[in-house]
Design a protein that fits this description.
eight-stranded parallel β-barrel, TIM Barrel, two-stranded antiparallel sheet, globular, binds zinc ion, binds fe (iii) ion, alpha/beta, about 40% helix
Length: about 280
């Protein structure tokens, strides 16, 4: 089954997101757990969540993806930023426990000059403090473009975080096609090789979701600027190969392309025509 959706606004709650997803031909969606620039959250609306869970079951929405705020940086040098990262993560996980099929994606972090080794230590340290045996929610490390001091632009860094996290059965990876192409993994000319490398270093069993984006910048630019499907350096042919690849095709795909809702509806329709 082709599981495809896009990023939606969570302003009106879970049922509204589910209904909007179905309306635009999607069967999954992504949303921010709170303002992407950080901040506090509204109390959970349990009635809305109950209605959403029923709606999701009826409409075969098996997974959804929550995205942590961009300001969450577990590998920051400043302690108050690391404290915010940990408390946000704890709160987001506990809230997602109420929602069927939710996974939580986050940017591993930026080491801000402390070095990748220190950053990786801090990120796995945070994960060791927040993950519990009891939680249902799987937490995903996003593959990054490697701009600035970002951690996660190399598969080896994600592997190290996973290795240093005790409860790593609760950890997965979300592969962002724009990011890894910008990071220097040539998924356009060598998709098979990149996926073998992913398997060798991280293990394909950890791969849980795909952020499906084209890129505004050329290969290995380390920039991270998303483009509409088919209008960037990945191109429609490359995207078609990705959504049909036997290793990837059963994963949920999430568009984070520069679109409003009608643009997303068109991209989803286009991707369905490209799906074999
Ligand atoms: Fe992201
Ligand atoms: Fe992404
Ligand atoms: Zn991005």
């Amino acid at each position: 089954m082709f599981r495809i959706g896009c990023h939606l606004s969570s302003q009106k709650g879970f049922l509204a997101m589910g209904e909007q997803a179905v309306l635009i031909g999607a069967n999954t969606f992504q949303f921010f757990t709170r303002n992407p620039r950080g901040g506090s959250v509204k109390p959970l609306d349990l009635e809305d969540i109950e209605k959403y869970n029923t709606f999701a079951k009826e409409n075969d929405i098996k997974y959804i993806l929550a995205h942590a705020p961009y300001t969450l940086n577990a590998s920051a040098a400043k302690e108050y930023i690391r404290v915010f990262a940990k408390s946000t993560m704890l709160e987001d996980i506990s809230r997602l426990e109420y929602i069927k099929g939710a996974m939580l994606n986050f940017h591993p972090g930026s080491h801000v000059g402390q070095g990748a080794d220190v950053g990786i230590e801090l990120i796995s340290g945070m994960l060791n403090e927040v993950l519990t045996e009891e939680q249902q929610t799987v937490v995903l490390l996003e593959t990054m473009a490697g701009k600035g001091s970002e951690i996660g632009g190399k598969f080896e860094e994600l592997r190290e975080i996973i290795d240093k996290t005790a409860l790593n059965s609760k950890l997965g990876v979300c592969l962002d096609t724009c990011h890894i192409y910008d990071a220097g993994y040539d998924i356009i000319n060598n998709l098979d090789e990149v996926l073998s490398e992913f398997d060798r270093i991280i293990g394909l069993s950890h791969l849980k979701a795909i952020h499906l984006n084209d890129s505004k910048n050329p290969f290995h630019s380390q920039k991270d600027r998303h483009e509409k499907i088919g209008e960037g350096s990945l191109g429609a042919m490359g995207i078609a190969e990705i959504i049909n690849h036997p290793v990837l095709r059963d994963l949920p795909f999430y568009l984070e392309t520069p679109n409003e809702i009608d643009g997303y509806a068109k991209e989803i329709a286009l991707l369905k025509t490209m799906r074999k």
